[in-house]
Every structure is written in C-alpha cells, then in structure tokens.
Amino acid sequence: MTIHLDHLLIPVRDKIAAAKQLAELLGVPWSATGVGPFAPVFVSDSLTIDFDQWPEPIPLQHYCFRVEQADFDAILGRIKAAGIPYRSSVFADNDNQVGSYNGGSIVYWNQPDGHQWEILTVSYARPEA
Q: In 3-state terms, what secondary structure has residue 74?
C-alpha cells in the first residue's frame, strides 16, 4: 500500500499573509483564492498546505521540510532577505546561525502566528534508505 500526505491545514490569523510568506520563502506557487476558505501553498506535486483563517487562540504547530543543500541555501537566503530571525536549534533563542545534525544543515524560524518552521538537509526522523 502507498500512502501520500496530500494536504495540511494550518490555522492562522491572516491566511493570505501566511500563505504568501511561506510560498515566497520556499520559492513555490500559492493562490489567494483556493478551494473553499483556504489560501493554498503548492509545496510540491504531492503536497499542498492550506492556510485557514481562525479566531484566537491559534494552536501552535511545528512543520519541517527536507530539502537538498542548494534549496536549503536558497530558502535561507530568502529568510535572510526578508529579515526573519532564525536559529540553529529548536529551543534556542534566535542566533541567526545554521545548525548541523548528522552531517546536514538545519535551521528554524517562526511564522508570525507562532508556528515553527524547520528546513533540514538530512532527516533525523528516518534512517537513510
């Protein structure tokens, strides 16, 4: 059996601003007019992130993307250009440093609603196949 994660719903205060920011940082397309009330970010051919406007309180969540080193460098460049503070460790203060784990690069930042984003080049959740 093959199972693919098709989409995620992320609650935010401003769905358009959140979708636009993530799409621009990842360098992927998005739409201000999605299906129903959502503002979708088309992360890949198999994954869409739907931002949905919710009232307070917004439950905080963590999302991680594994990317190739060249994509990591490009995304990090866009994070820096946008002036978004980032950090090398999940629980650290913003140090504007890149962390390393298992020979790969890793960085964390927070979306304006508090959601934590992570990009890494080597998964620590799964052993190499």
A: helix
* 3-state SS assignment for residue 58: coil
Topology at the third CATH level for domain 60-129: 2,3-Dihydroxybiphenyl 1,2-Dioxygenase; domain 1 (3.10.180)
Plot region of 95 (φ>0 → left; ψ -120 to 50 → alpha; else → beta)? alpha
CATH architecture of 1-56: 2-Layer Sandwich (3.30)
The side-by-side arrangement of strands in the sheet containing 39-44 is: 7-12, 47-53, 39-44
**Global model pTM greater than 0.70:** yes
Sketch the domain layout of the chain as residue ranges. 1-56, 60-129
- Please list the pLDDT of the chain residue by residue as tens digits (129 residues): 777 788 999 999 999 999 999 999 999 999 998 778 999 999 999 999 999 999 999 999 999 999 999 999 999 999 999 999 999 999 899 999 999 988 999 999 999 999 999 999 998 877 665
